[in-house]
Here is the input.
Amino acid sequence: MTEIQIAPSILAADFLHLEKDVEIVNSYADIFHLDIMDGTFVPNISFGFPVVEAVAKKALKPMDVHLMIVNPEKYVERFAKAGASMISFHYEAAREKSPAVIDLIHSLGVKAGIVINPDCPVESIFPYLPMVDFVLIMSVFAGFGGQKFIPESLERIAAVKAEFERIGRPDVPIEVDGGVGPENASLVIGAGASILVAGSAVFKATNPAEAISRMRG
Ligand code: DX5
Ligand code: ZN
Here is the structure.
């Protein structure tokens, strides 16, 4: 059985007490999910290198950088240097440049992931499935934390899972991001996801450790 990994999104953390929330991930979760937004690819700006580097100083778990930016190839190297061991970029921001971005991420010794928003046909990323180390399926539109999970995402996860099986790569992880929490974790896992990103469901919970453990199912 595939191991389920929980990736709390630092976007929902308490930035005045960031170390406390970093320790929650170190103690109870598996991966740091770091959302990078540029105000152009998405209508919001999150945080940049200083925050990623600060988290890196205390992180005992791998750092997964989710780039919601135009021209992702310009910044991949700096995020690798800042300590990312997984970097994902949006297919919508790279299109035919996607293989080059994947190669660049790999050349830095980092795992490469491709991301799609809910309105992008899943088939668009099928040509790249032989190359990537993981796929990230957005279950809300990228740009903001705290949105409601879009139920049709389940079929999209299942479609990517089926295509990975068809090409003989059944163990490549599928990550799901947006509106995920204890109430729908079993559904996304059932559809084929094995890395669950959760911002609000972890950091806004009264008991984050319990929320994380409930998501593992
Ligand atoms: C949205 C981000 C998500 C977000 C998830 O653009 O990619 O990672 O922080 O937040 P929740 O879990 O609150 O939907
Ligand atoms: Zn994200």
